[in-house]
Amino acid sequence: MGKSRRTVQIVILCLILVLGGYAITTSVSGSNGKPKEGDQAPSFELLGLDGQVHTSDEYQGKAMVINFWGTWCEPCVKEMPALQAQADKWKDKGVQFVGINVGEDQMTVENFVQQVGVTFPIMLDRAKNSVRDFGISPMPTTFFVSDTGKISTIHIGQLDLGTLDAQISQLAKQP
What we know:
CATH class of the largest domain: Alpha Beta
CATH architecture of the largest domain: 3-Layer(aba) Sandwich
CATH superfamily of the largest domain: Glutaredoxin
Number of strands: 7
Oligomer: single chain
Strand order of the largest sheet: 2-1-5-4-3-6-7
Radius of gyration: 21 Å
């Protein structure tokens, strides 16, 4: 009985070591499924403030600026006028802006969008599926996606007008 118990303990210890090693390796190597620059952007299917379900396929062939934000996030709120200004500037040049609100109710988001004067499409990610797929943490996080669907740049944190313009200019030049 003692020998059998010892064998079970050794097997359990080996399993713990293997699983621990795997967890550490995937964490360090970054193979946690988060998209990186150069990867294909994850797809999305989200309810828009217009009441329609929108998918990433609608924007195929266009360069995109995908911004994850929340009304409770001060840097998100501060960068929204710059995003709107750039959306206005680039809308006729093949660059599509999409705002993805994280986890808030439609009325809160609609009130904010109306107050700030945002006119580019805003989607609601109430279940946080896109947050998971895009690997978002922290906010705001903005993905610059080429017209081929590849992630050109990922910017974490608040964007200003100059940085946005420079990133979009680079994005618009990409083949």
